[in-house]
Amino acid sequence: MSTVRAFMDRHFLHFNSREVVDAAKAYEAHIQSGGKMMVTLAGAMSTARIGRILGRLIRKGYVHAISCTGANLEEDVFNLLAANDYKIIQDWRALRAEDEKALYDQGYNRVTDTCIPETIMRHLEERLIDVWSKAAKSGERKFESEFLFDVLSDASLEQHYQIPKDDSWMLAAKEMGIPVYSPGWEDSTTGNMFAAACWRGDVSTHTVVKTGTEQMEHLMRWYLDASGYNAMKKNGASKLEKPSVGFFQIGGGIAGDFAICAVPAMIQDLEMEDCPFWGYFAQISDAVTSYGGYSGAVPNEKITWGKLEVDTPKFMIQSDATIVAPLIFAYLLGE
Prior knowledge:
Structural class: alpha/beta
CATH class: Alpha Beta
Order of helices and strands: HHEHEHEHEEHHHEHHHEHHEEH
Distance between the termini: 11 Å
CATH topology: Deoxyhypusine Synthase
CATH architecture: 3-Layer(aba) Sandwich
Radius of gyration: 21 Å
CATH superfamily: Deoxyhypusine synthase
Shape: globular
Strand order of the largest sheet: 6-2-1-7-8-9
Number of strands: 9
Largest sheet: 6 strands, parallel
């Protein structure tokens, strides 16, 4: 029986399809050489159920950190707890404004063809307010993802699962102990909930959730360890014993912009001239280089910003990430 990997090797030979296979092969080579990988999630990848395959990739040890939008952070958990209650709109392009209002009145929030019920948001809100308020009273401070990990650690939650545990990338990240950063979390549903909870006094202080700059410092320190830089310094070596951390970017926006800036911050702002550049770069985006759009910036442009080196393996795949990312991940899993 033919595999996804065999099919891609045989048919994805030129142009954009060749770039997909080359990116997958270089990703695999990076891991096999001892390198770590940062994956960034923009768009609505969690709503598109990327967790079904990303969770397996995390558990296999092919993903070592995640940077994602607040929406991707929470929507993996929404899906875990309410996938059967979602409404799917087959002909979503034909929806009229009146149809959208009807969905709103029914308690649905639409993401392209998928409508998420408000009920699951309120269910999660209740649990989050509980962990936020307890942390505020005890003086504990955490990242947004860590509070969601606390919710996922509650044994009473499992009775509400509507999909297999293996299909949740957040559960996989929690199990594997990898860091999950969510820059700009304030614009998400749970970020809005937190602001409202502070307004009402349900949570006594905004500072219970760590800031974006605290996430950046944590990421910088994680990078130095994951890249082998700290070991290099400790051993008195002049170069890394393995490739530095790779960067696999799905979509554009803040999830990728935030994470990739960790390296130039150390080189240019901390003046760590021997800090290694990112050791691999691939991006899947439907954006093109025009009108100053960063999401469509070609990889070489990142050299001028101190993010990539001249010889860093670089791949730019201009396609639909909901199609291409699962293909690459399946290739890596040997499916």
